[in-house]
Amino acid sequence: MGKIIKGLTFNEQLDFAYVEFDDVFKTAKEIHNVSGEKAKYLGQILAVGGYMTSFLKNSTDNMSINLRLKKGYNLNYFGDGNGNIKACINEVEAGETSKITVIKDLGLKNVYSGSCFFDGGILIGLKAYYSQSEQIFIDFKIEVNEQENKLRAIFYQCLPDADGDSIDYVLENVEKSVSDQLELFKKDGCYATEKQMIFKCLCSNEQIEKVLISVGKKECENIIKERGNVEVICHFCNKKYTYDKKMIEELFKDV
Do 133 and 241 belong to one domain? Predict the structure, then answer.
């Protein structure tokens, strides 16, 4: 279980968030069996995604992030209004630039989607997204300690009535350790609330069957002929779903 403590600071001009995702990070590392740079990036997208997910107001709301880094990594994140979050990372061909795409389903008529290209890692990508897609100043500090399974972060976001002094405050403090910044909030912050989050994948047979239907009966039958069954692996939790010939026939019987 992880937690995010949110509130206001600097004369209520800054939205503040403290992320403590030790258990979330440990679970993600174990599921995906990653270390080194991959573990660092996985921790970063969990912290970033968890922070963005904390703004979802309804249990039915959800959001996703895709980050394709020019170094040759593709990361995906998903979170919902109930505090269920998940992420994965895989290697891809290196590119000339990086791209971040954020999709939010808030139960409205249209799903929100925003994306932008950037040059750098995840942290630069998040700043670029907020600046270009949402026109919001944001800054943060993320600490990933792989050996101790610790993932901590601080986020600042300027509110609409914030003045230039608030940005100066952020720039003066954001490079301090996460623990030091948390102590500053305890002294000067207000309206603190806490939200629990957990690394949990909600994949199911029903969801996988919808995927197979979208693939089509003919393609599924061809896979059965070649391999004897259709196997689908969830990239978020590595759970395997296996369908034999009889199960595929039953699936498409009423389609």
Answer: no
